[in-house]
Amino acid sequence: MGPRIQVPDKDTKAMVGTEDTPGGKASPDPRDLRPSVFHSIKFFVLCHSLLQLAQLMISGYLKSSISTVEKRFGLSSQTSGLLAAFNEVGNTALIVFVSYFGSRVHRPRLIGCGAILVTVAGVLMTVPHFISEPYRYDHTSPADMPQDFEASLCLPTTKAPAPALSNSSCSGSTEVQHLAVVGIMFTAQTLLGVGGVPIQPFGISYIDDFAHNSNSPLYLGILFAVTMMGPGMAYGLGGLMLRLYVDIDRMPEGGISLTSKDPRWVGAWWLGFLIAAGAVALAAIPYFFFPKEMPKEKHELRFRRKVLAVSDSPVRKGKTGQKRWRGWSPDLLPTPPPTVFPRVLLRTLRHPIFLLVVLSQVCMSSMVAGMATFLPKFLERQFSVTASYANLLIGCLTIPLAILGIVVGGILVKRLRLGPRHCGILCLLGALFCLILSTPLFFMGCSSHQIAGINHQPGAQPGLELFPGCMEPCSCPSDDFNPVCDPSARVEYLTPCHAGCTSRLVQEAPDRSQVFYTNCSCVAGGGPVPAGSCESACSHLVLPFMILVSLGAAVASVTHTPSFMLILRGVKKEDKTLAVGIQFMLQRVLAWMPSPVIHGSAIDTTCVYWAQSCGRRAVCRYYNHDLLRNRFIGLQFFFKTGSLACFALILAILRQQDKEEETKATMSSPGLQQQLLVSGPKKEPEESKV
């Protein structure tokens, strides 16, 4: 009797939700004894972990190659920061709508459709590479090969053709192509955000609905642990792909003479998007075979499941898990959303602890967003490291320590059974130590080396300061960029022509060839001078710098779980889901969207020499290193200080609430204690424990 009631109740619902062709005519007993792999919640957890890993890898990959995209398409840091933040636009616009109405749809299939859209967006990001002309790292010659070195020399015969070539490359179609390329990348980033909307919330609710109550936290922990490796893999993938030349699919016949240390080097940024998009596409396939609803995962848990279902039946009148997914309390569920939302929203936003915690998380997220987007570029400029090495440092050092910090914070909250006040103390200590560790970063760097003919004050026009008189007979092109370095004087020249060099010498080696320029009138002794920019005098500081950054990230990540618990323990029980949704939305709107643009604009203000493309300002060639370090680290310091101030106010409010609670307890007035539920003090020891 028992098995006959149990099987049709749920299993037939699962079959009707997914398999329309059999019509539910199959015998339920074999399906109950030998269930399909797609009716296993464990398999869903595995698939969803891989999908979120691939999704975060493709969404974080652009940050690992941001400086390469700038050089390839002539973008400023402000524009590239806006591009990196644009995937949050589509995500933020739809997350609330999808989160509320998502319980009425087939969640696994919608997750699969979102993953397919993410795949399309990843492929669309590579389109600019294929529709653009091959990368020309020297604009003085139509060909990329040794002729560009000849054109960069101090030869009077180059006086006539250089302006003509420069003007011919600035046709109307070139500008249209540039706008099309930028528009395609912004569209792809928007689609990337839209496609990612259903993946995480639908997956979490699906696991929570059909996993056993005691197993759901374990499955979600596994999901988050695997997912957090996505950004690290994105930087690792960027480090590998940027070692390859951008036009690896259409290499010139004679090859190239650039190395990855050359400032003109552009890596194969587009190849990583193809690899990550392929991974997302493969991870999306199983979702089209999962049922809309599935029974609980194990037979021995079914009796307990039915007992729970009977006990919950007065609350859940619809589909399994609908109340939990929608996030409304039983008294608010029948109310139409337009009337419920404003009242609950105002009640949540008027909570002081909630507002301060969200503000502190906004400050932390702003710091993380700016660091994740522009830290690779900062390392390239400040310490003269390659883009691939900078990405490997972040992916192998900073992100693993940040993940470790999140885990340690969760363990401390669980093992020590921290209440709201002690969670506030832990958050305050984490923000304080993060601020202390970031202070030495202001002094870990060195000033820019001298660049002939360039004023090191940002904002000055490059043409206002005359180039040295030793190269006046050379008629050097103004838009050429082929730097050479005089190592004895530590002076860098824009091109061999600006150094007065008239000849070129190539030293062949088994691994790579080294290019030198000789007979340089501006160099003491006439040279030879090697091709490429001068090495930074403080490149040895890159590892200590990254260790401090990584330790600061780890300490800041310790505050993640306790600050989250402050929200969950501070608001009313029926408002928790909405409070978390508001928290994530405010973080996106106030931190993840504007922070990359703010950091990019600050970096642009430190530029001392802009490349010109068809009369418009393109990529920045040289920065004032002292200003770059002070403004980039200063922004980070500002956001960390804001987070510390918010946590200090939270702790002060919690202490005041504890004093008021003690005073009211001595008065033995239960009516007054009932009002403290809204303000969120430490009501019961069990309520404060995780």
TrEMBL record:
Q: What are the Basic and acidic residues biased-composition ranges?
A: 681-690
Q: Which organism is it from?
A: Catagonus wagneri (Chacoan peccary)
Give the region (Disordered) as residue ranges: 1-31, 662-690
- Where found in the cell? Cell membrane
| Domain of life (superkingdom) | Eukaryota
User: In its keyword annotation, does this UniProt entry include Magnesium?
Assistant: no
Family membership noted in the UniProt record: Belongs to the organo anion transporter (TC 2.A.60) family.
This chain's protein is named: Solute carrier organic anion transporter family member
Q: Where is the composition biased (Polar residues)?
A: 665-677
Task: List, for all copies, the residue spans of the domain called Kazal-like.
Answer: 464-524
